[in-house]
Design a protein that fits this description.
The complex is a heterodimer of chains A (272) and B (269). Chain A is mostly helical. Chain A is built from 7 helices and no strands. The longest helix of chain A is centred in the C-terminal third of the chain and has 66 residues. In chain B, 26% of the residues are buried. The chains are: A mainly alpha (272), B mainly alpha (269).
Chain lengths: 272, 269
């Protein structure tokens, strides 16, 4: 009986010991300062006030300026869409480019109309070369020119001075014809390029138009340079023409002096 | 003693088997323990909230205000300095005003007729090459011939002289025809320039560069057409030079022939 009692007491004590040990272990493992782990804590009110303050702050200090920024951006977008880049004006400019394309094409067709007018075979051949606007024909100009206008007279036919300026004049006349042929070819290319750029302009945007404008400006500068080059050739032709007239007058004067001298000599011989 | 120890272990095993209900309690308790919970005290939370508040008030709100100011500044700069609506409207009005001011004057000058011939054939020729109508260039040749004559027949002139006369006529006529075409294209370019100006009166700053490019393209066309006229002038000048030179060559050849003939005459008693 006593043993049974002792055993029961031992069992109860043992169970209590196990429970106490388990609780002690759990308590020891728990973080010493954790709060509200399993329920409400007094500091919740403080956190709530803090979060409410943050929320109000976000509304006043963040949301309000962001709203203003959005409003300002919207205003800016409206201004750009209605005043700076209105789609109607952009489309109108594109439509105008389409309309101008027709005019450019007409001008190109007019510029390509034949102005050939020679009637005899020899002159038709030379004229054909000169009006061909084909830079590959430049090499033929000298031969065609010599065949048509003749070459420098032989040394037996004229003094060397005369032969020199005749050759110079022929050279300049040929050069001017070659330059005319080249300029015609360049002009045709410029007309083609202008039409291509205009075609591109029909689908351009205000932002890309500036690029096309720069390219066209470059073409215009180039065209000015070619025109300048042709003007220089024209000045050379006229200068050589002037020089040619001067040389003839000089030659004529010298020739007259020689004639006078020779005439005097003949007359003096006749007197004696 | 040994037996008692064995009994104790047996009892313990039995007890554990019968008291298994404690085990889930222990496991749940262990699971509820936050593994990384740290010492987040009330003071720390308040400090954290204060930091957040001061960050919102200081760094974020400050930056947002700066952005807002910049945005306003940029908008004001765009609307008052770069694209002020008043200036845009003023420019459009200016375009319309100058069109009205100069349009009639320019048109009046351009349409002045410069025809000056008095006799019938020259008047016809002049009106043809001043017509600016490419459809008329086919009529230039007969009108030219009626004023300047035709190339003499093969029995009346040397072949080289005939060729030169024909070439001179051809290049002169070619240049005159080129001026007819050029005048017609000038009309087209002037119409285009007028359209560009008209469109610029209704343009926006954004479509302005497109019209400007259009004007540049038209300028390129004009340069090309000017080059063609210049080429015609070069040909005419070159032919004139070549003509004069050929006359000199023929003159020297004629002089040589004269000399030879005189020598022959003098050598025969």
């Amino acid at each position: 009986m006593k043993v049974q009692l002792t055993t029961r007491i031992w069992n109860v004590a043992r169970n209590a010991l196990i429970l106490a040990t388990t609780f002690a272990v759990v308590v020891m493992i728990l973080p010493s300062q954790a709060r509200s782990q399993l329920g409400l804590d007094p500091c919740c009110a403080i956190i709530s006030v803090g979060l409410s303050t943050i929320s109000n702050l976000l509304k006043s200090a963040v949301a309000a300026p962001l709203g203003n920024i959005q409003q300002s951006a919207q205003h800016n977008v409206n201004f750009e869409q209605q005043v700076v880049f209105p789609i109607a004006a952009i489309n109108q400019a594109r439509a105008f480019a389409v309309q101008a394309q027709t005019q450019f094409a007409q001008m190109r067709q007019i510029s390509q109309l034949s102005v050939a007018s020679a009637t005899l075979p020899a002159s038709q051949q030379l004229e054909g070369t000169l009006l061909s606007a084909n830079p590959n024909n430049v090499a033929q100009v000298s031969n065609s020119y010599t065949a048509f206008y003749g070459q420098v007279m032989p040394a037996t036919d004229a003094p060397q001075a005369v032969r020199d300026f005749v050759d110079m004049t022929d050279a300049e006349a040929q050069a001017a014809m070659k330059k005319a042929l080249e300029i015609d070819a360049v002009a045709n290319l410029e007309l083609q390029a202008a039409e291509q750029i205009n075609q591109q302009l029909q689908t351009a945007a205000p932002g890309s138009a500036a690029i096309l404008e720069a390219q066209t400006s470059a073409w215009v500068v180039r065209a000015n340079a070619y025109t300048q080059s042709a003007m220089a050739e024209l000045v050379r032709v006229r200068s050589v023409e002037l020089a040619d007239q001067g040389a003839r007058m000089k030659f004529s004067t010298a020739h007259t002096n020689t004639l006078q001298t020779n005439g005097s000599q003949v007359l003096q011989q006749g007197v004696h | 003693m040994k037996e008692r120890t064995v009994d104790l272990f047996r009892n313990l095993q039995r007890c554990l088997r019968t008291r298994k209900r404690w085990l889930p309690v222990v496991i749940v308790a262990l699971c509820l323990i936050p593994s990384t919970a740290r010492a987040a005290g009330l003071g720390d939370i308040i400090s954290l909230l204060k930091t957040i508040t001061s960050t919102i008030q200081g760094a974020i709100a400050g930056q947002l205000n700066e952005i807002q100011n910049l945005q306003s500044l940029l908008n004001r700069f765009r609307q008052q300095t770069i694209w002020p609506l008043i200036a845009i409207n003023q420019a459009k009005a200016f375009v319309n005003s100058t069109r009205g001011q100069y349009g009639h004057l320019m048109f009046g000058i351009v349409t002045i007729r410069n025809n000056s011939a008095t006799l019938v054939p020259p008047s016809q020729l002049e009106s043809l090459f001043r017509s600016g109508q490419s459809g008329f260039i086919g009529q230039v040749q007969p009108a030219y011939s009626s004023v300047y004559g035709v190339v003499p027949s093969a029995t009346s002139a040397q072949p080289q002289q005939r060729n030169m006369m024909d070439m001179d006529d051809a290049l002169a006529m070619g240049s005159l025809k080129a001026t007819v075409l050029s005048d017609q294209m000038t009309e087209g370019v002037l119409a285009l320039a007028d359209s560009i100006e008209q469109h610029s009166a209704n343009a926006a700053p954004g479509s302005g560069p497109m019209l400007s490019t259009q004007a540049q393209v038209a300028e390129l066309e004009t340069q090309a057409l000017m080059a063609k006229v210049l080429a015609a002038e070069l040909r005419a000048e070159a032919a004139k030079l070549a003509h004069q030179n050929t006359l000199l060559k023929q003159s020297s050849a004629a002089t040589r022939n004269l000399q030879n003939q005189m020598m022959q005459v003098l050598s025969h008693p």
